[in-house]
């Protein structure tokens, strides 16, 4: 009896490494897209530029993300999810010291992810096809960040004013992120973080 060349188990075995390579390629594209957007803005970020940075062909990039809008919105969402996971892991035991939580939340808005998201916001104000994607993405990321903040701060949102206090913290963090885009605002940021920690102790109990 000759060798079996079409074994039913052969396809899954071959598909495993192929799927793994596909996931790696996708991740490299997403990370390259965020870096490109943060460094060069929307106008300077093309699918070709991202593909080159990721070390793949333009065709491979378009296989994963058919349009430019698909690529960049997916990239910002991917890194936002990664940062949320890292933030949860940092405080895996639950509520922590408020200054540390406030500082960690502020850090979400002072890195490459925020700069990339900012470029998307600006582009969405002029690109009709991009605007609904970015609006939906930001609403989803905002809700998730708010939930994480409530959890880590041990905030009870059934108490009047607490929800608004937590949202005010996130709005403040976003403002500090904007200030940090043009200059290193670390010294002032540290003072603001300390003051907000005192405010939260009073407001949240």
Provide tags for this entry.
single chain; 205 residues; mainly alpha; 76% helix; 0% strand; elongated; disordered N terminus
Describe this structure in words.
By secondary structure, this protein is mostly helical. 76% of the residues lie in helices and 0% in strands. It is built from nine helices and no strands. The chain is elongated, with a radius of gyration of 21 Å. The N and C termini lie far apart (78 Å).
Summarize the structure.
Helix content is 76%, strand content 0%. By secondary structure, it is mainly alpha-helical.
Give the low-pLDDT segments: 1-9
Terminal CA distance: 78 Å
Task: Please provide the ordered H/E string of secondary-structure elements.
Answer: HHHHHHHHH
Number of strands: 0
Strand percent estimate: under 5%
Shape label: elongated
Tell me the helix content.
Answer: over 70%
- Number of helical regions: 9
Instruction: Kindly provide the radius of gyration, computed on alpha-carbon positions and rounded to a whole number of angstroms.
Output: 21 Å
**Global structural class:** mainly alpha
**Main sheet: strands, sense, barrel:** none
Estimate the mean pLDDT confidence: 84
Topology:
Blueprint: H1 10-40, H2 47-54, H3 58-64, H4 68-90, H5 98-107, H6 112-124, H7 131-153, H8 162-182, H9 186-204
Helix pairs in contact: 1-2, 1-4, 1-6, 2-3, 4-6, 4-7, 5-8, 5-9, 6-7, 7-8, 8-9
